[in-house]
Amino acid sequence: MQLYNKLSAEERAHLIDEAGKDRLTISFYQYYKIENPQILRNHLFIEWDNLEVLGRTYVSNEGINAQISVPAENLAALKEQLDSISFLKDCRLNIAIEQDNKSFLKLKVKVRDKIVADGLNDDTFDVTNIGIHLDAEGFNKLLEDPNTVCVDMRNHYESEIGHFKTAVTPDVDTFRDSLDIIEEDLKDHKEDKNLLMYCTGGIRCEKASAYYKHKGFKNVFQLEGGIIEYTRQVKEQELENKFIGKNFVFDHRRSERITEDVIANCHQCGEPCDMHVNCANEACHLLFIQCEKCSKKMETCCSIECKEIIQLPFEEQKELRKGIPNSNKIFKKGRSEVLKYKK
Ligand SMILES: [Zn+2]
Ligand SMILES: [Zn+2]
């Protein structure tokens, strides 16, 4: 029985083209005490491989967090499969706004300590004692309340290209850092202000809202389904859209455009731009914003140094990489001194 992905990204991309099927990019999560994550992991891998699911999923003792793509024609079968798992029955599936058949090229289901790297010790508080869930309409309403502080629970490189108009966007690299910053900022208002939170798909706010309630905040609210679900509801119900720019996502698409506003700048020349790229030097792979002009000039590199490295023969590049810790992570935090216009 096959329990692991065997195809390379290129082979998979080719197969997707050949199949010519439209795929849907989907995310979902559920906090739930899973006794044996490895068993669930293997079960999901086998079932999903059959359904031609691709993507990245984490399973842990605290639940499941899935970012996947599936052929549109298999969506009903996937739903049925998820419904057969008791704690995933009727779980909300966030379906991406902008579709790309190649949003994922591998099926990876991994057992992890946590489903979101939150840097928290779970034993200290009750993660099921969460805030009040709001839909798009309720969120808009509370956003207008002068007594509300709206906080973006994502990292700096995500909020940089898009966020709710009046939101506080902490300049942080990790979820853990933003928890502390927000708590410090609001320490005198734990009882009198509405703490209104949002993130990409809602999962980070589940944890954050429980954390803040544990810390004594009295009025804790969160956007259910995050920006993805908000956008869907705004369209469907013709509500006012209070989000501007793009929604950063964790697959090959990198972002979904929500409005035409470009609120960020090229990190190299400062021109308005909200296109993320990864530095073409595999050993660097820095995530940053680069306009087309700079991309051409710099051959999609973050620095002159990286540009010089990619001119070298492949074997020589490999030699240079030896002994350097693998930084080849798609979403390496986008900070570097070489980026003149990174705020
Ligand atoms: Zn530029
Ligand atoms: Zn670089």
UniProtKB/TrEMBL annotation:
GO molecular function: oxidoreductase activity, acting on paired donors, with incorporation or reduction of molecular oxygen
Keyword Transmembrane: no
Catalytic activity: uridine(34) in tRNA + AH2 + O2 = 5-hydroxyuridine(34) in tRNA + A + H2O
Start and end residues of each Rhodanese domain: 144-239
Alphabetical list of CDD domains matching this protein: RHOD_YceA
Record EC number: 1.14.-.-
Family: Belongs to the TrhO family.
Name of the protein this chain belongs to: tRNA uridine(34) hydroxylase
